[in-house]
Amino acid sequence: MYWSLRNAYQEKQSLNNIQSRLREEPSDFNDLTVLGGFLDNHDNNRFLNINKDWTSLKNALSYLLFARWIPIIYYGTEQAYAGGKDPDNRESLWPNYNIQHLMFEVRY
């Protein structure tokens, strides 16, 4: 599902990619409730490295949080880290963590 989400939200391809993948999953996995979903990971460029649009990232995160899998958020996504290839996608989180960052900020 990672590649389907990446294609749809990072590369602005059709959301039908996600729908198609969701239809395929039951034949690929016995228990869909134990699958994890993620947008960023240490093996690939971060979301914002490919697509600088924060709105796309927020939309993708919203989908990730409410989809049928266990949401996994790679550290630094909430800080809008935009690292490229390894090791640039493993930016140090501490002591740079900013709870005032617009991606992290909680609004009431």
Q: Nutshell version of this structure?
A:
It is built from four helices and two strands; from the N terminus they run H-H-E-H-H-E. With 108 residues, it is mainly alpha-helical. The protein has a two-stranded parallel sheet.
Characteristics of this structure?
4 helices; 108 residues; mainly alpha; 6% strand
Poorly predicted segments: none
Q: What is the structural class?
A: mainly alpha
- Across the major sheet, the strand order is 1-2
Shape: globular
> What composes the largest sheet?
2 strands, parallel
Alpha plus pi helix count: 4
Percent range of helical residues: 25-40%
Q: What oligomeric arrangement do these chains adopt?
A: single chain
Order of helices and strands: HHEHHE
Percent of residues in β-strands: 5-15%
Average pLDDT figure? 89
Terminal CA distance reads 32 Å
Give an overview of the whole structure:
The chain is mainly alpha-helical. The chain contains four helices and two strands. Strands 1-2 form a two-stranded parallel ribbon. The N and C termini lie far apart (32 Å). The model has no long low-confidence stretch (mean pLDDT 89).
Topology diagram in text:
Layout: H1 2-10, H2 16-28, E1 36-38, H3 47-50, H4 54-66, E2 70-72
Parallel strand pairs: 1-2
Helix pairs in contact: 1-2
